[in-house]
Write a structure and sequence with these properties.
171 residues, rod-shaped
């Protein structure tokens, strides 16, 4: 029995050592897992701030003046291959479209001003033409009235001459 007892004791000792080793290994794994969890917990906010929110903050800072029509803002991040790069590309397109729209508005304003000036010149020319035509009509009317008066005078004189002619021939 003593041999069996010794063997059971040895087996118990080996089992105890194995359990102690397993417990130590489990404790070490738990500690390593806890350290990784702590590191991830500390790293995620830093990573989020650095990789996600910082580029978004820069895009927001670029979009603010663009929204007010200040096209001098330089859009950064268009070379990125992630979603931030796509958003920066969209902001760049917004900037270019805004600049083109502003140029079109300026061109339209210039064209409208030229058209208004042309209309004013046409109005002035028509007014001047009307004035000249009015003066010509006034002159022609006045001359016509004078011609009519002269014709009546000549006609009256001719009638008197005709009346006087037989009288003069008798004498």
């Amino acid at each position: 029995q003593s041999a069996v007892s010794d063997k059971v004791g040895e087996f118990g000792e080996k089992l105890k050592e194995r359990q102690t080793g397993t417990a130590s290994s489990a404790l070490i794994q738990a500690l390593v897992g806890a350290v990784f969890a702590i590191l991830i917990t500390l790293f995620v906010p830093f990573f989020s701030r650095r990789v996600l929110f910082s580029p978004l903050d820069r895009l927001i800072a670029i979009m603010a003046p663009l929204a007010k029509g200040d096209w001098s803002a330089i859009v950064t991040g268009t070379d990125r291959t992630d979603e931030i790069g796509e958003m920066a590309g969209a902001v760049e397109i917004f900037k270019k479209n805004g600049m083109e729209a502003e140029k079109l508005r300026a061109d339209q304003a210039v064209a409208q001003k030229k058209q208004l000036e042309r209309a004013e010149k046409m109005e002035a020319a028509v007014t001047g033409f009307d004035k000249v035509i009015g003066e010509i009509i006034e002159t022609v009317s006045s001359a016509s009235t004078e011609l009519q008066a002269t014709a009546q005078t000549l006609s009256a004189t001719a009638e008197e001459l005709v009346k006087d002619v037989p009288t003069t021939a008798e004498h």
